[in-house]
DNA sequence: CCTACGAAGTTAAACGTTTAACTCCATGGA
DNA sequence: TCCATGGAGTTAAACGTTTAACTTCGTAGG
């Protein structure tokens, strides 16, 4: 509650001098400097970042919008971004959009009013128009995980196409021909790209996937469970011997369905996931999956953001991060 | 970038009038009000919350400090708090302490400088002294999940003692006598309370647990894995037939060790966890566990915080939330 | 000896709000 | 007719910083 004014009074100098000492922005004589620090300590002075932000027009606060921070994938991104922010003395405001463009829009408004220096988002909206408000005001931002077609902005993505391709190749190499795919919401690019990778691999192998082999999920475990039950209900001539789920949560849901049906993984049904969340290694059997550098994506988003805050002019860059097969015992 | 001043100019009124219209703090004639709203819309005006906060001494920002937001348990708490904050038009700053009291202290400083209206924390420090800085400045705060002995503050806890007791009773009821326990870091009250519940149940059953049956973990899957391997390496006369792990992550780690040893759950070894994280239902076999109302704890923390911001005087309250056995197939 | 200069301090404006206190004016009651 | 009242607007101070511009003074160069 002590202010610069109080410190100045106690040290017997002007407010400006105290500010110069604190920020090291101008040389100050040693005696005065000592008196100021003494006063700062005695009064337990802490600068008021609101006042500073108001004056400097820089708040050292970033915003992060994700669909759901309780989803381990987004949690990891958040963690990466938070770590980087802390290292650079930025604070991070967390927002959950629930995948709802309207809620996302409200959050964008709040973050703008909060005068954040930059925003990282896993966008819920499908079109760049949703982010016009940011461009209009020249607020630095970076989109993570999901691509917005035609958007002029920094962008951090995993190589989802390659991931879908690798996962499917892996199953093909194991001798599978009837390979099913549990997709995510199809309007999201990560899911769509993974499915494209799947299709490419199948095509290269000369296999035309049956329509019933492609089943839409919503990235949650429950939907993987239902999709797998559907596959298992197919007549045996059409029933897949392997499933590629577009994320681990759905793969784990599928696992449960397979277990309940009394079938064994991988002997009866092989299973590949996507994301390599922590628990993928701990389910039984441990899940073969495609690892994304999730934490790194969060960090990189932070780096780009801070870089852009410091130098707005540069052209936007797209970062496509490599994915990696993690072979465990579900295949 | 438009300010009150710009809006006022365009509407042909004074700054104060615009403020009154925006906040509805004083009656304004219909014509003037209309002109103001027109100007607000035309200029895409958005209030600057820094300036407002500086003046009002209320920022409508809360802080949350957890050890690690990527841990599903804390992620859920964060989600609960964030939802409540959003509903009350508060923003939330997320901080990860990594369980390090020094880092926690730095974050407290940052949040104070940021002038947050209140702080929720899962404290890393073991003594109330760590939070003196908050009390000194009269900043509302609530501690979640972990109790600080002798701390005068609002506090949201799960009934960990009861949880440990129930879990152990459950195993005893299933006929187990040699029951091991994987604890968390012992200086944390949730872990200690759960262990006390375990001991109470054992004592009531007239069983004196061997020392080797109590093994310390760190709440991460890896440590559960190692603890279980240790149990399995005991001579068969001492080897436990059931394990109570103080959280799900460690239970899942233990599962893996059991699986690797070629033993079956629950036939050879029964397993109970704690927390009921989402994935507990999806591991194979599904994990019997003690459910905490995690999301609710986050929400309640937010409610208490906001209530205390509005009325500082009241005496602090402790909320002990009930836990619930969730019986699945690991026992 | 004068001047110019640099070091080290101070003053005051500015950032964008909120809000207490003031002005102005129409209205109605005595 | 006069005054009190209150509705609707304005003025200006305040919140806690930063920072450009100014003052003061000792010193060195010409």
Automatic annotation (TrEMBL), chains A, B:
SMART domains linked: HTH_LACI
Keywords of this entry: DNA-binding, Repressor, Transcription, Transcription regulation
One Pfam match: Peripla_BP_3
Keyword Transcription attributed: yes
Protein name: Ribose operon repressor
GO molecular function: DNA-binding transcription factor activity; transcription cis-regulatory region binding
Gene: rbsR
TM stretches of this protein: none
Domain HTH lacI-type per the UniProt entry, residue ranges: 2-56
């Amino acid at each position: 509650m002590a202010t610069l004014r109080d410190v100045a009074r106690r040290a017997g100098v002007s407010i400006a001098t105290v500010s110069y000492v604190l920020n090291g922005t101008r040389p100050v004589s040693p005696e005065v400097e000592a008196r100021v620090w003494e006063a700062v300590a005695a009064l337990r002075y802490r600068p008021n970042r609101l006042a500073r932000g108001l004056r400097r027009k820089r708040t050292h606060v970033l915003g992060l919008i994700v669909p759901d921070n309780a989803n381990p994938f987004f949690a990891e991104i958040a963690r990466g971004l938070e770590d980087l922010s802390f290292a650079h003395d930025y604070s991070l405001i967390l927002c959950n959009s629930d995948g709802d463009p309207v809620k996302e829009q409200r959050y964008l408004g709040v973050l703008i009013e909060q005068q954040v220096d930059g925003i990282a988002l896993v966008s819920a909206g499908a079109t760049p128009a949703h982010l016009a408000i940011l461009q209009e005001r020249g607020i630095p931002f970076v989109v993570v995980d999901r691509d917005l077609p035609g958007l002029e902005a920094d962008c951090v993505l995993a190589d989802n196409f390659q991931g879908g391709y690798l996962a499917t190749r892996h199953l093909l190499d194991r001798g599978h021909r009837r390979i099913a795919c549990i997709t995510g919401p199809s309007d999201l690019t990560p899911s769509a790209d993974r499915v494209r990778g799947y299709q490419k691999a199948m095509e290269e192998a000369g296999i035309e996937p049956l329509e019933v082999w492609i089943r839409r999920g919503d990235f949650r475990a429950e939907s993987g469970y239902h999709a797998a039950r559907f596959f298992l209900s197919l007549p045996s001539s059409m029933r897949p011997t392997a499933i590629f789920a577009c994320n681990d949560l759905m793969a784990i849901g599928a696992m449960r369905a397979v277990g309940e049906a009394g079938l064994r993984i991988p002997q009866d049904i092989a299973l590949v996931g996507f994301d390599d969340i922590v628990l993928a290694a701990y389910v039984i059997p441990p899940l073969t999956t495609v690892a994304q550098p999730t934490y790194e994506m969060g960090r990189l988003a932070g780096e780009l953001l801070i870089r852009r805050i410091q130098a707005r002019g540069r052209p936007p860059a797209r970062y496509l991060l490599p994915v990696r097969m993690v072979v465990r015992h579900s295949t």
